[in-house]
Amino acid sequence: MRLTEVKLGRTGGRSSNNRTAVRTIAVTSGKGGVGKTNIAMNLAVALAKAGHRTLLLDADLGMANIDELLGLNASVNLLDVLEGNCRLEDILIEGPEGLLIVPAASGNQYLSELGALECGGLVHAFSELKGRIDSLIIDTASGVSESVTSFCRASSQVLVVTDSEPASIRDCVAQIRHLNKTNAIAHFHVLANMVLTARDGTELFKRILELLGDDQDIVLSYAGFVPRDDLLRKAVSRRKAVICASPQSGSSVAINNLARRVLRWRRPDVPHGQLEFFVERILQQNHVEREVLS
Ligand SMILES: Nc1ncnc2c1ncn2[C@@H]1O[C@H](COP(=O)(O)OP(=O)(O)OP(=O)(O)O)[C@@H](O)[C@H]1O
Ligand SMILES: [Mg+2]
Predict the structure, then answer these.
(1) Given 47, 85, 179, 239, which is the most exposed site by the fewest CB atoms within 10 A?
(2) Whose CA is nearest to atom 23 of ligand 1?
(3) Among residues of the chain, what percentage have pLDDT more than 90?
């Protein structure tokens, strides 16, 4: 495995022109409950606070909870867009610091089983936001389901969150291997969450490096750590982002550091700058897979 940054021009490496590419980051994990939603949500708020036009997509389809976590209670959601009842514009809700949120439905089986092809209805919907955002943060479900892999594959960067429990480490390694072998994703940013010290974070990253050490196709970057923080839990129970509720807390400081780091990550080679590209990429790749399989 290599530790250096690699060129990830998955769509042909055309040189950049002056159109601004949208930074798309899928936040995922092997095991559930390691803090993806809190990291995605607070990272998105931190980016918005720093002046970046940011959209947070609740892509834990079927078990969505971001609107709830922020005390926003969306009355319409992605399901209404997919059913043709309203446009994406109509379901966007404004969160802290002007962050835009795309809420999804919770407990809906249709949404939880949404295949990549069914995302087609989103193509037009996302194109309505053309030129209006700089960053898209996608909070996915955990594991290796079709929707998780589709969202990771469609994103320019994948941020894998793990804590230091053995089962989380094992599932983190399994997810990275799966995404690499079956979806040709080479580069992963690993975030150590709920660790006690900075050193614990680097130890956790080293452990994952060791476990993936013989794999030459995978490139890992350390995205840093977020400490275990009671103020984050308190913010959750108050239905607030910790970045807003306790901006000086350890987790807020760490997430602001993460946001600064994320802004230095390479933008995609191809200046898509339009979100339909994001969904089209899901559709095209899925189509190719189905053709190969049939
Ligand atoms: N840095 C942290 N310090 C303390 N508690 C945390 C931290 N990060 C997350 N938590 C807590 O861990 C729990 C799970 O967090 P969260 O819902 O963000 O995880 P998740 O990975 O999105 O879960 P799921 O897989 O169910 O979607 C929450 O109760 C949250 O308050
Ligand atoms: Mg979650």
Answers:
(1) 85
(2) 33
(3) 49
In a domain, 7, yes or no: no
Residue 11, domain member (yes or no): no
Cβ distance 158 to 189 under 8 Å?
Answer: yes
Assess whether the C-beta atom of 60 lies below 6 angstroms from ligand 1: yes
- Nearest atom in ligand 1 to the alpha carbon of residue 139 is 22
233 CA to middle of ligand 2, Å?
Answer: 14
Closest residue by Cα to residue 270 from 16, 35, 60, 87: 16
pLDDT of 22 strictly over 90: no
Angle at 110 between CA 177 and CA 291, to 5 degrees: 55
CB count, 10 Å around CB of 241?
A: 30
For residue 218, being part of any structural domain is answered with yes
Say if residues 128 and 88 touch (Cβ distance below 8 Å). Answer: yes
- The model carries a pTM of 0.85
| CATH code assigned at 128 | 3.40.50.300
Residue 283 lies inside a defined structural domain of this protein: yes
Q: Annotate 166-205 with DSSP letters as a single string.
A: HHHHHHHHHHHHHHHHHH---EEEEEEEEESSHHHHHHHH
- CA–CA dist 1, 249 (Å, integer): 35
User: By residue range, what is the domain housing residue 144?
Assistant: 23-293
Give the distance (Å) from ligand 2 centre to CA of residue 36. 5
Q: pLDDT-based confidence at 128, cuts 50/70/90? A: low
